[in-house]
Specification:
4 helices, extended, mainly alpha
């Protein structure tokens, strides 16, 4: 229990990042950890997208699309597949 509390108290939010590529192995470990995190009703509705290189510059555009979807009150589960296809089609 004390270990868990120490992890919670030591948590921090990083807002400045290095311009350095993240190794594939580390990305896979992080994604796997997220996949195992608990969800309500054990639904595990995960959709994870790794964005690298030139695609990072398109995040603002993708964020606008995401905000529009939320504003129109669509549920993520309903449009997740279509949204992922949209992002992939935009290159």
């Amino acid at each position: 229990m004390e270990d868990a509390l120490e992890l919670i108290y030591a948590r921090r939010s990083v807002r400045r990042y290095l311009d350095k590529p993240v190794p594939d192995e580390l990305i896979l470990r992080i994604l796997e950890a997220g996949r195992w995190s608990p969800t309500a009703g054990d639904l595990n509705p995960w959709r994870m997208i790794v964005i690298r290189g030139e695609n990072k510059d398109k995040l603002e555009e993708w964020g606008k699309v995401g905000r529009t979807i939320i504003q129109e009150r669509y549920t993520w589960e309903k449009i997740a597949g279509d949204f992922e296809d949209y992002l992939l089609s935009r290159g």
